[in-house]
Design a protein that fits this description.
alpha+beta; three-stranded antiparallel beta sheet; 10 helices; about 290 residues; six-stranded antiparallel beta sheet
């Protein structure tokens, strides 16, 4: 039994012992792969794991010389009136949730305003204050579209097609823009391909799709996000922890967990149990590493 199979079997037992509502599991250790399914293999919303894809969109545009993450967003959308202090907000601030603009998540976020990005940027900034909100990622992609056109179309050519992910479904706002911070539908194994790309610092089968420094920035240069373990550090879409790992973390247990050469991808419909499962995954990976 190889390491990936060992990790898979441990996670499967833990999931079944705790009644965590998992759908799919993909374990990558080095080049070893092991998988397991509890439900049919269909595409499902990966929720906030999509924020990592949005970061890759901005990174690709920076690599293409189309944008700088440190350019004030007000300069990119001069037709939008910005609130006090927002003239200092950059794309990096939007993607790290540190714009200081107060607009927390709500179930009706996409329909409460004719244009969510205009509403968001029109509010004042409190400085580099962290607030986790899909409005921030949505606005980042709205701004990015000024340079790349439709973000999903841009990603299809630059990311999805090279990864062999076709006919992607990404939910759209009433004005036709991608939801960005969620609404991206992928199979477990497709999400795992993104995980391998991140683990390998932007390289896919020998081809450098994204510059390594952008991948590194997804789990470094942390912004202080709070005090709760696992939610106290946030970077470009990446959460620090559990333990020595880092992760993309979508609502309802959509997880891509990284530790050294290992990536564990889980899709699920269990928000409450996700933190405990993530901690167990890292503990298991550390046991195998030692």
């Amino acid at each position: 039994m190889n390491r990936a199979q060992l990790i898979r079997d441990r996670i499967v037992r833990q999931v079944e012992d705790t009644d965590f509502t998992a759908h799919g599991l993909h374990v990558l250790v080095g080049d070893e792969i092991a998988e397991h399914r509890w439900t049919p293999d269909i595409r499902e919303d990966v929720h906030s794991a999509a924020k990592g894809v949005c970061v890759l969109a901005a990174a690709l545009a920076a690599d293409d010389g189309l944008i700088s993450l440190d350019e004030p967003v007000a300069d990119l959308v001069p037709h939008i009136a910005v609130g006090a202090g927002v003239e200092e907000v950059t794309l990096r601030h939007l993607l790290t949730m540190s714009s200081g603009i107060d607009l927390p998540w709500s179930e009706t976020m996409m329909t409460d305003w004719p244009d969510l990005a205009t509403e968001f940027l029109g509010r004042p900034s409190r400085g580099r204050v962290f607030q986790y909100s899909n409005a921030s990622t949505y606005t980042a992609m709205r701004v990015l579209a000024e340079r790349v056109g439709d973000v999903q179309d841009y990603l299809s050519a630059r990311l999805f097609t090279p990864l062999g992910i076709d006919d992607v479904v990404w939910e759209r706002s009433p004005n036709g823009r991608i939801i960005a911070g969620g609404g991206l539908f992928l199979r477990t194994e497709e999400l795992a391909r993104l995980g391998r790309l991140l683990r390998d610092r932007g390289t896919w089968h020998g081809q450098q799709l994204v510059s390594p420094e952008w991948i590194d920035a997804m789990h470094s240069d942390w912004v202080v996000a709070g005090e709760n373990p696992g939610y106290d550090r946030y970077a470009l879409a990446g959460w620090g922890g559990p333990g020595a790992g880092w992760r993309l973390h979508g609502a309802h247990g959509q997880l891509v967990i990284f530790l050294d050469e290992a990536v564990v991808t889980i899709t699920a419909s269990d928000h409450v149990g996700a933190d405990a499962v993530a901690a167990f995954v890292v503990e298991s990976l550390e046991d195998v590493r030692h």
